[in-house]
Specification:
83 residues; alpha+beta; four-stranded antiparallel sheet; 3 helices; 4 strands; 41% helix; 24% strand; globular
């Protein structure tokens, strides 16, 4: 999937999506699959592999309040049907 010639990164993991938003990567869209799974779509950050690696190894530093607020924001988008 492409958006304005930039590669999109998709994840269905709410925590990882919230972490990406918390460090300044806005959601570019949501994509629902037939299996009721929803993917959060982001423009690929220049250091995506480093961010992903740090997240899964529990070494990504994110402000706790901001992360919590972004989890709420993403859940609201999911439940409001905003796709």
């Amino acid at each position: 999937m492409r958006l304005n010639e930039k590669q999109l990164v998709k994840t269905s993991d709410l925590g990882f999506a919230a972490a990406l938003v918390s460090i300044g990567n806005p959601v570019k869209g949501l994509e629902r699959t037939t299996s009721r799974r929803v993917y959060f779509c982001f423009e690929e950050p220049s250091k995506f592999s480093d961010i992903e690696s740090r997240y899964w190894s529990k070494n990504l530093t994110v402000d706790a309040y901001t992360l919590g607020q972004n989890i709420k924001l993403l859940k609201n988008r999911l439940h409001s049907g905003e796709l």
